[in-house]
Amino acid sequence: MVNRFRSAASTPNLLFFLISLFFLIVIIYANFIPFNFSSKFSLHEVWDFFQHIPYLKSRAGWEGNLLMYIPPAFFMCGYLHSYQTSKLAKLLGVFFTLIFYGTVIVSIEFFQIYFPPRTVSLNDIIAEFSGVVLGVILWILFGNRFINAWQSIRNGGQPAIFSALIFYVIGYIIFCLLPFDFILSLDILYRKLGNLMANSECNFTLRCLAKNFAVVIVNMPIGILLGLLWETHKSTTVRNVLIFGLIISISIELIKFFEVSGISQGLSLLTRPLGMGLGLWLLKRHQKKPIWLSQATIKVGISFLILPYLILLAALNGWFSQAWFSWQAAVHQMNELQLLPFYYHYYVPEAEALSSLIYVAGSYVPIGLGLWFWRALPRRSDRLLMPALLAGGCALIMETGKLFLSKHPDLTNILIAITSAILSYIIASWIRRWNQNTVPQSLKSITPNTTEAVTTLDKGNQITVAFWMLPVQRLFALSLLGIVIFAVSLYPLEPIWLAIGLALYALLLWRYPAAWLVAIPALLPILDLTFWSGRFFFNEFDIVILLTIAIVWWRSPLITSEQILFPRTGFIIGIVVLTQLISTAIGLFPPAPLDANAFSNYYSTYNSLRVSKGFWWALFLLPLLRQEVRQGTPVSHLFSIGMLIGLAGTSFVIAWERMMFSGLFNFDLDYRVTALFSGMHTGGAFIDGYLATALPLIITCFLSGGYIISLIGIGIFSAALYGILVTFSRIDYLSFTLTGLVLCCGTLLLLIKHIRKIGRTLLISGIILVLTIIIVLPVLRGSYIQERFSSTTESLETRLKHWHLTLSIMNDNWTTAFFGMGKGSFPRTYFLKSNQNFIPTTYQYLIEKENQFLRLGSGESLYMGQRINLSDGDSYTLSMDLRSNVRNGVLTTPICEKSVLYSFNCNWISIKKNAAIGEWSHYQTTVEPSTLGKGHRWFTQHPLEIALYNGQSGSVLDIDNVKLTTPDGDNLIKNGDFSAGQDYWFFSTDSHLAWHSKNLWIQILFEEGWVGLTVFTILLFYLFFTLYQRICTGDSFALLLMASLTGFLTIGLSDSLFDEPRMTLLFFLIAWLAMVKPHGLIGKSIPKSLSHVHSPHHFRSHSRVQAAT
């Protein structure tokens, strides 16, 4: 029998026919089980019913029916094509396949009417025929490659192993995503979100541990494949394999989350990379010194393992889970036993049936492998009777034991056990034969159309890495694209316009993949609509980031064997990633319920994800940056352009803000700008940090040598300097001074060998100095900044006390000391443990009787506001429902001209509650016409906001159905019933210390512990040391990066900048630019002698770069 099969296998066309026939038999069997034939219908009745087949509104097993017909159609098309050479004949083969299986589908559905409880529907026919069409399309696209791969496997040697591993990876990914029952309803998605944390599939039971151990084992071949692709001797291989494992795990878990039956497991994010890492280690160990044991040693080892295996097998089958039944109960259960194969699988969901099948099959794989080892690793896959008998006997004993348990035995498991043991024995024999048959064959035959860069394999074989990496990247990108689509569909502010903008950006990225280097820095400070949308956990800028990653990851392979990063950078990034993972997990667990408060409150544990997302965005953008550097893209030039666009836009917004609220040249009024940094609604110095970081990059305008660009640079510098000054922040002035000193010292270092360029340098420096004096002097003469300087000592004392308080509220245990309180945990910890006299105000969205409302507490001032538009001269009606825990509760609703932190020309409206305690009551009042929001054009109108404020100490107000209606009856308030949670509402507060630790290093110590602070310190030393080396080689862009980091860290002395994800993203993007080698140094190390090495620049003239700096 084996010889016949081997003979058939040598002829692919016959083998394809046998495979197609096998699947056809399986389909017929599966569609008529449990074979309950009924003759009560006449042929006329059946035909009449069949002509009116219903279309069910439910999914009705759509995915299973579709997937079932893909393999037979694929192999049938392959069988017919293998006999034909002309295109017309192959086209006829396609039509024959479609007609044949179309006839099979219709026939099966017709005869199923005679076999209740089988259901017949139009859904089945559509899904099944779609599967046939998909199978044919897959053959047309990949049939030739499939045949080449099969021939490679048949020939043996290294190509056979490689091709088999490729098939294994494809099959593994398909298996992980089965049954592809994607969520098509928002209601189902909401229910799944609500139950996400309710139950855990894994409670560290024996079955759970065995399952996760199996995950590790099945991922080891993928690690071996990656080792063959990337060459095990390279230092970057281990890192690349672990990153690959993490990416594929995240992709699979994200996709499974959007499946109805999918269960996302956080533990898989560890077990899959672990399995790949073990596979890589095994390959490296075998390549250095092949692992060979004597036959006697193997048999002794197997003998010792037999008893533990049988005990484990019995435990997995529930033998030790309960007391056994009596003989009488066992006989009764045996009498009810169904002997029909796969009978019980029909009555359970497809996902559960598949999981059971794989679980049983995996349990008996050790029998086939054990017997293969016992027989001295034979190359021939004959003598299969013994593994069948051993596996069948063990399965029979296990199933017999279930007669005495509450579990029902299933004789199908015996068939599965026999098949599993035989297949594992055959595959092991094949691998042994492949490993010994060293048939030279270029693996390029498997990928004939690929022209990407290749990496060398053993014995001179080459394989295109790009071809095999793209499917994995695209799987990850597809999952991100699904999130983008879902986020846009739920976006509160004009999702159509957002979708159009994202589509245009996607087209731009597809045509120019490097465009993100301009777009992301440019949009970072100005794309923030949180004031209007209320979304501050995940907003439109995050959607742009996800779309960027998805498009570029889909478009081209991002893994490269070239050394793009400086030495030891991989280790630095690795320990940073580890500390970020730990602190994020600490802050996240235990996760809060997924309700309306989960992603709308800084006290939520999910604030850990909000705070840390800036780093993760930067990490996913790092491969994109490496790819652009490898291709010779002028990344420094493009990044600088993006930063300057963002800086110019921010400066314009600052000027508009000053013009609207204080006057451009009024330096006496107590007003500090915020621009579009919505994160400053609780205070913070994020606008300060951004300006200090971006300002040094203005120097790039003077590097081009063009007068127009230089004039633009002068304009941007003037506007940005004005923006820094009108923050009226003393630390900003210090940052500007220190940044200037760094630039001056670095310029002197660059000019040592270019003294002849000193004239141009002095000219540019003189212009900048004169502009600085002209802009600075009027601001310093203002009374407000003088008051700020006079209170410096008091402010410093307040900061010191706050830093001491921040450290004192940390938990007193060694884990907190080492790893911190977790990302985003400061507001929650401060609220719970602070001993200050003032208490921050709380807000919460609650549900009673399926009605959601806002509960507003009391404490330090907190205003829950919404941006509105009013017309001059109109009167409005303000109404709402209120409930309070005190009899005379008061809700204040000011309508003000509003910036982020300041209010002007307010119309204060107080609504006094007079209903009984705990009872809802409706209130209504008239808002008199006013001149609020004056201005005739949109850019001259003052932004208006209506706010909800509870100023009565010790009271709690429940608020619902807020309306502000016009005389025409139009309601100006959106989401006034709070059914959409935080949408359109955004709070601000006058109490800032309760939300921020106010120092970057204190923040890291609080959130990440001493381990995180140590890692951050190492990172900073490495960055500045690397940048100094680059400056010594003549790299002036490195000087600008050093100045930007200096500005960022200086602002960090007085504020916790990593509270704002955009600032975290900006910091790490600059860090990546510092770590990435300039294109001319790729593949080289920094030389010891620095006197003659020049880093290439993408600007017009290198000498001008040095001189202008």
UniProtKB/TrEMBL annotation:
Transmembrane segments: 12-33, 66-84, 91-113, 125-147, 159-184, 204-229, 241-258, 264-283, 304-325, 353-374, 411-431, 475-493, 500-524, 536-554, 566-589, 637-656, 676-699, 706-727, 733-752, 761-780, 1000-1025, 1037-1058, 1064-1082
Record's keyword terms, sorted: Membrane, Transmembrane, Transmembrane helix
VanZ-like domain segment(s): 30-142
Coiled-coil parts of chain: none
Domain of life of the organism encoding this protein: Bacteria
Pfam families: VanZ
Protein name, per record: VanZ-like domain-containing protein
Lineage: Bacteria, Pseudomonadati, Pseudomonadota, Gammaproteobacteria, Candidatus Competibacteraceae
